Amino acid sequence: MNTRFNTSTFLFGNKRQINHIDAEIILGIKSSDPAISEFYVKRLFYIELKALLTTIQYSLYKGTIEYDELVNELYIHLSRNNWEALDSYRGDNKARLSTWLSRVAWRFFMNSYRKYSRMTSDEGSALDCVKSAEILSDVDIRMDIEKVMKMMPNRRYAEVLKLNLYYGYSAEDIAVILDTTVSNVYNIKHRAVMQFISIHGQRDDV
User: Fold this and answer.
1) Which long-range contacts (CB under 8 A, 24 or more apart) does 35-42 make?
2) Where are the domains of the chain?
3) CATH architecture assigned to 120-205
4) 38, 103, 134, 193: which has the fewest Cβ within 10 Å?
């Protein structure tokens, strides 16, 4: 794909030391053209960061999470506010974007792993909360649960919760619907509940 970005302005106008390849990736990701942006997003996550995310997948999560799930989480984290996180990358000491992102990714997933591990004991109560909305048919509770689900940044998580807890689909059925494995459905559901707890707690604190 020939994007013909003017990377020289990006490199030197902001007094950065970013090489042309990384500058092209960043400008491509931030492009207002969806096709160009998608091209560079895939290049970043499925080429530049492939080795890094595969290492995290198997060393930290012991292969219990599919690669695409890691991509989805890191994508949501980095893409906030038009990829504002990438603005912190300056190419100091000639560090490549992938090297800089390795520190960002490890810190993000380590914090996420610790947070979900601490919150595991709360999963049952959260499931009971969601199920009670269906069993009791309480309109106010249902509306509250649905609002929280709409606030969940990972739409795949919200979709799994709704399919399983609202519509009663089994993990096997959801695996077919989402074209994934049953074990991954259980993993997504667990992480979805943790995200639900976090968002619901933040609303209560306001």
Assistant:
1) 36/1, 36/3, 39/1, 41/75
2) 7-117, 120-205
3) Orthogonal Bundle (1.10)
4) 103
